[in-house]
């Protein structure tokens, strides 16, 4: 699927704190018709990080509403700058955003649905829960959080789902056992997942282990979540003396392009694989943050999705294109 990025001007109408670390933003495009968007849709928001324009992608919360687009942003301790930028905005701020787009296909004809959210991964799941509850579908939502105080939209979800909302709060010892959960699901259940990368890896293993087809596990993750902390790393260009520093607040894709080593891209969310380039050597460790490559491909470290993946130490890559100046 090709992502068409049409930027439209919009205004931040209101903010609302959902928990100490999660803030909701209501954004109204200048020209807004309230057209419905598919479950799992996201918008891109143009943010400024260290004076540079960058793009951040946020899931839309809930089904379409006449009020505008709702997103919720967690204030991330190891933020690359996007959440910091969003959190300093006040009502009335002007923004550039893209129109909603969705990568998650939901078929509505299943007998059973399972929704799983980890932390801020609840954002795209709220709309799915709304749509399924409205259809009277057999759906259960498992919401894994550190504590109920950290959770967003608990009251709304409880109203919608009643006892089909199961909160797994780790400070109450309520760890989500994905193996047991997936083993208990009837065959043909469609599961929608959104959570951090580590949880997604566990979900994929458990899903396959329980004998369900991988195509019945639909997922989203956040481009910024990895297994290593977000920190600066170095990229060496094969057959050249060029070595670039990738600061913690910028992506490898941005730095390569800004340095004249053109890398094509599309989704910038680690989903389409278009920005992948060859890895020639790794002195340190790669933190694959995409959902494009398989576990096996990630393990081989032969390629890296430059839009979201990061590293510790220095990696040598081959973009196949050479900067004009080199
Ligand atoms: S641009 Fe789509 S995975 Fe990087």
UniProtKB/TrEMBL annotation:
InterPro entries: 2Fe-2S_ferredoxin-like_sf, 2Fe-2S_ferredoxin-type, 2Fe2S_fd_BS, Beta-grasp_dom_sf, Cbr1-like_FAD-bd_dom, FAD-bd_FR_type, FNR_nucleotide-bd, MRET. GO terms for molecular function: 2 iron, 2 sulfur cluster binding; oxidoreductase activity. Transmembrane segments: none annotated. Pfam families: FAD_binding_6, Fer2, NAD_binding_1. Residues 233-323 form the 2Fe-2S ferredoxin-type domain. Residues 5-107 form the FAD-binding FR-type domain. It comes from the Bacteria. CDD domains: fer2, PDR_like. PANTHER family: BLR2392 PROTEIN, NADH OXIDOREDUCTASE HCR. This is Diguanylate cyclase. It comes from Bradyrhizobium manausense.
């Amino acid at each position: 699927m090709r992502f068409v990025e049409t930027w439209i001007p919009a205004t931040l109408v209101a903010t609302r704190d959902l928990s100490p670390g999660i803030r909701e933003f209501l954004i109204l495009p200048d020209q807004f018709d309230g057209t419905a968007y598919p479950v799992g849709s996201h918008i891109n928001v143009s943010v400024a990080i260290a004076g540079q324009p960058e793009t951040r992608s946020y899931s839309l919360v809930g089904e379409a509403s006449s009020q505008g687009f709702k997103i919720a942003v967690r204030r991330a301790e190891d933020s690359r700058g996007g959440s910091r930028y969003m959190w300093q905005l006040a009502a009335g701020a002007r923004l550039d955003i893209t129109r909603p787009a969705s990568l998650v296909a939901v078929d509505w004809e299943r007998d059973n649905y399972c929704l799983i959210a980890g932390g801020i991964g609840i954002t795209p799941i709220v709309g799915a829960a709304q749509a399924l509850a409205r259809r009277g579908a057999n759906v259960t939502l498992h919401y894994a959080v550190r504590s109920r105080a950290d959770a967003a939209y608990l009251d709304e979800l409880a109203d919608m789902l009643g006892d089909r909302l199961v909160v797994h709060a780790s400070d109450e010892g309520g760890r989500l056992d994905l193996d047991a959960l997936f083993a208990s699901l009837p065959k043909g259940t469609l599961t929608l997942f959104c959570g951090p990368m580590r949880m997604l890896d566990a979900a994929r293993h458990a899903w396959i282990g329980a004998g369900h087809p991988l195509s019945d596990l639909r997922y989203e993750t956040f481009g910024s979540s990895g297994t290593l902390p977000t920190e600066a790393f170095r990229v060496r260009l094969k057959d050249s003396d060029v070595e670039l520093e990738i600061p913690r607040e910028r992506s490898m894709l941005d730095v390569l392009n800004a340095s004249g080593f053109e890398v094509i891209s599309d989704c910038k969310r680690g989903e389409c694989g278009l920005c992948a380039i060859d890895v020639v050597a790794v002195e340190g460790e790669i933190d694959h943050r995409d959902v494009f490559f398989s576990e096996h491909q990630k393990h081989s470290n032969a390629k890296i999705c430059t839009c979201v993946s990061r590293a510790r130490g220095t990696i040598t890559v081959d973009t196949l294109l050479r900067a004009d100046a080199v």
